[in-house]
Amino acid sequence: MTSRTVTLLDVARAAGVSKSTVSDALQGSGRVAEATRDRVRAVAEELGYRPNSAARRLRRASTGAVGLHLPATATRLDYYMNLAFGAVERAQEDGLDMMLLGPSGAAGGRIASRVDGLLVIDPESGDSAVPGLLDAGVPVVTGERYLGPAGGPSGAVVCDNAASLTALLDHVTERGARRPAVLAPSGSSAWATALRATAGSWGRARGVPVTLRTVPFAATPAEAEAATRELLAADPAVDAVICAPDGSAPGVLRAAAALGRPVGRSDGSGGSGEGAVHTADESRGSRSGNGSGHGGEGAGPGGGGATADGSSGAPLLVASCVDGTATRGAEPPVTAVDLRPAAYGRACAALLCDILAGRTAPDTVRGHAWSLEIRASTGPSAAPAGP
Fold this sequence. Notes:
This protein is of the alpha/beta class. 39% of the residues lie in helices and 14% in strands. Helix 5 packs parallel to helix 14. The longest helix has 17 residues. The relative contact order is 0.14.
């Protein structure tokens, strides 16, 4: 029996219940005992039953579509395109079309008449479209938590972004960095907020000075290059740069090449320093004129003196908070956190589908795993690590 020929009546006969009970159990409606609901769903899955999407939409007055809201910068970022394809693929498995919303979203009531539910990815508390989407009157799942004042979503899929940056900082210090720096994203998304906070808490907890510089959420390679040049000029002792924005790592590599800083190292010796988190501006005022003290001349992987423009000949470790084609195809390839965006998009769509179908209760929060991909930009390769 194929999925095209299996009917509600087939499932009802196999489960030993009425056709209406099967319908209620699969739609999450009616007064059906939990044990019966589970048995019906198990039988339906075993038989390969697939609901008639058109008939289901007529019965429930649904649109058969869900909306996807991405950050305004998404169209030029590899991460969000992969995420969107994963979400579309998963929604289609439940017979739902995906509608990509414009950056402004849409008036809540108007969009609610066109979709059954919404996916809102990396919502910014400063995005004027988000409150209307959250209050649209349909189930909403966010990719990462919403930190703004509007009502909360129906569900969320989250990554442990603090843990991923912690893993990167731990890795570069294990590879010998004594003065790591983070090019952290601006903005009020949960991801950006977590990375900025973690740079500070990690430095304080370990007694290692972390130079923190804020760059645009979707910084281009050129913007990352300029920020890195300014960073190394302000504090030439910086010996590792972790850049957050997707696709910006090649800019850090170009800055390192221009300043004569070879990327990576030939051994895995460790070392740590002392101090507290500080910004690039603070480090500019705190360094002594002769470069003495922690992080002065000769500091960092491989040693070497530093000049006023940030060039020293000392190796520079480079890593990224987001993996993608830019990090994998760089020369050298860049160590990065693989957030598995296609799988993340699928996870967000799966949660929304489960809520719409009554398979999962609203207010559900699911986690999403990442992995650390270690490459030549931080030295000898090693086995990938993850949560």
